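Below is a filled-in request sheet from our internal design queue. Each sheet records the structural input a requester submitted and the sequence that came back. We keep these sheets so that new team members can see what a complete request looks like end to end.

REQUESTER: design group, bay 2
PRIORITY: normal
MODE: inverse folding
CHAIN LENGTH: 301
BACKBONE (tokenized):
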């Protein structure tokens, strides 16, 4: 029987009090058993690393994640500074910037980090949802795997090192810009143009759905002039020395998407007007490499 009660006694307090104390790893015997079963001789190290990162993910980082997911904390774009210089500054909450710095300092892709340690760290961090770090982590892994296979110039090797080992404690963030307004996820339908000017490549045109827009580097699909084949490029958001000056690398952020979900993650429409780009892998193998390497690794994690 359910009688009317104007003072409905139902509440979530007991659940919330329990949730506040949950450690994602220490309070999950199943995941501990999985670690012991699969990691073999690495078991003690993986367990120790998991316990350390779980304390951060379960409490401090969880609280940051809850805060930045609030509607009033959505990122926004500041197109011009006070002197009418185009800067396209992405403004994010301080909690997001602190969280991002601390999470990427875990050095997921460094040579010292074993695959098992990387996996358990990602698993525990992902318990907090997007939080403007989950997508960038997976995108960065796709960029790292691509460059580990094909980086062969001073520029691409430096980008690889920045992503893996960091520069003075700053670990680079990667993104993937594939989608265009006319084709969505149909990458072969891309029309973004890549133009070779001497030894330099530049790209021209638009991309329609670009997540992790705050990243340092992006994997970008584009077609070389007069070619029907999609090639793959790495495009820095800023050329050396220009990040502090807020001078972007030959592109504009036209607008940030207003999304129902993962609103804390920046997603934008971009226009490239001669952005410096570094070709990665054979020009005619862009689709194969973006699917076989970039998307495969990033979707697995």
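RETURNED SEQUENCE:
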């Amino acid at each position: 029987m359910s009688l009317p009660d104007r003072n409905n006694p139902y509440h979530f307090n007991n659940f919330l009090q329990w949730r506040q104390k949950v450690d994602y790893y220490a309070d999950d015997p199943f995941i501990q058993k999985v670690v012991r079963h699969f990691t073999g001789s690495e078991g003690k190290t993986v367990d120790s690393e998991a316990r350390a990162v779980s304390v951060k993910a379960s409490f401090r980082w969880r609280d940051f994640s809850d805060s930045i997911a609030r509607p009033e904390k959505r990122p926004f774009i500041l197109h011009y500074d006070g002197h009418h210089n185009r800067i396209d500054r992405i403004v994010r909450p301080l909690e997001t910037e602190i969280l991002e710095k601390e999470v990427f300092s875990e050095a997921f892709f460094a040579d010292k980090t074993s695959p098992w340690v990387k996996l358990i760290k990602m698993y525990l961090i992902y318990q907090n949802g997007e939080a403007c770090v989950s997508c960038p982590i997976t995108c960065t892994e796709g960029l790292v795997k691509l460059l580990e296979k094909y980086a062969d110039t001073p520029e691409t090797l430096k980008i690889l090192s920045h992503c893996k080992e960091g520069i003075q404690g700053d670990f680079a963030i990667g993104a993937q810009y594939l989608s265009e307004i006319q084709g969505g996820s149909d990458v072969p339908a891309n029309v973004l143009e890549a133009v070779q000017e001497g030894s330099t490549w530049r790209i021209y045109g638009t991309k329609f759905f670009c997540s992790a827009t705050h990243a340092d580097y992006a994997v970008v699909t584009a077609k070389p002039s007069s070619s029907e084949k999609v090639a793959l490029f790495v495009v820095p958001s800023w050329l050396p020395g220009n990040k502090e000056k807020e001078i972007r690398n030959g592109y504009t952020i036209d607008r940030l998407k207003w999304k129902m979900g993962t609103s804390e993650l920046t997603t934008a429409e971009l226009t490239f007007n001669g952005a410096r780009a570094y070709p990665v892998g054979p020009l005619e193998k862009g689709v194969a490499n973006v699917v076989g390497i970039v998307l495969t690794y990033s979707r697995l994690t």
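SHEET NOTES:
- The first helix runs from residue 13 to 20.
- The beta strands are 76-80, 86-91, 174-177, 193-197, 200-211, 217-224, 231-236, 251-256, 267-279.
FILED BY: M.R.
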